[in-house]
Amino acid sequence: TQELLAHLAPGAAPSSLNPAWGALVWLFARLPGMPVAGWTGAFSACCGAAAVGLLGRLMVRVGFVIRNEPGRESFNRQAQARRLSGLVAGLYLASSIPFWTASTRSLPGTFHILLLLATAWMFSQYQHWGRRRHLFLTGLFFGFGLTEFPTFAFYLPAFFFLMAREMFRWRALASWRAQMAIWGGPGLGLLPDPINAYVLYREGVVT
């Protein structure tokens, strides 16, 4: 309730927290059919379901070395291990009490988790294919996550290290197109920050 009121209460000052989620709350408040708590609860549930599916897809990509089993059987066992790990990870997340609670409340928690997993998925795509669009989208999701969820800042060192390592592996460090993608994505993702700062300044929240 407090999260909703921070964005909807008449006369309330604009909030610097969760600006994108706040914009969605503002939109949900104008939709017919359900109260705003119902729409935001349904959105949280959809984000939670998408996060479970995305985590499962990510875990399917984790490789397992099956030793002492040469030939085709080794690949079959590895595929089984990947599918099992994806299923178990998805079920574990879905049955986690804090995650389940966030998925059934009008809270931004599952939206933030989905942003984090979307960043990880795009990074995994770049690992597999080495395409610039995945490089750009990884930075875009990460930059947007920084504006929405302060915990993303803790991943900054890992983000720079992993991206530099993969760009080196794909021999993209010297490519100006790749450099534009890796810096342009976060730059575009961080764009809501100056916009929100301008709104806060205009409303007199900051001076």
End-to-end CA span: 28 Å
* Average pLDDT score: 85
How much beta, percentage-wise? Answer: under 5%
State the helicity in percent bands.
over 70%
Please report the number of helical segments. 10
| Radius of gyration based on Cα positions | 20 Å
Assembly context of the chains: single chain
Which spans of ≥5 residues are poorly predicted at pLDDT below 50? Answer: none
User: Main beta sheet: strand number and arrangement?
Assistant: none
Number of strands: 0
Give me the secondary-structure category.
Answer: mainly alpha
Overall geometry comes to flat
Topology as a string of helices (H) and strands (E)? HHHHHHHHHH
Summary tags:
10 helices; 207 residues; mainly alpha
Textual characterization of the structure:
The protein is mainly α. The model has no long low-confidence stretch (mean pLDDT 85). It is flat. It has helices spanning 2-8, 19-28, 36-60, 72-95, 97-103, 109-129, 132-148, 156-169, 176-189, 192-202. Helix 1 crosses helix 2 (19-28).
How is this fold's topology laid out?
Layout: H1 2-8, H2 19-28, H3 36-60, H4 72-95, H5 97-103, H6 109-129, H7 132-148, H8 156-169, H9 176-189, H10 192-202
Task: Write a compact overview of the structure shown.
The chain is built from 10 helices and no strands. It has helices at 2-8, 19-28, 36-60, 72-95, 97-103, 109-129, 132-148, 156-169, 176-189, 192-202.
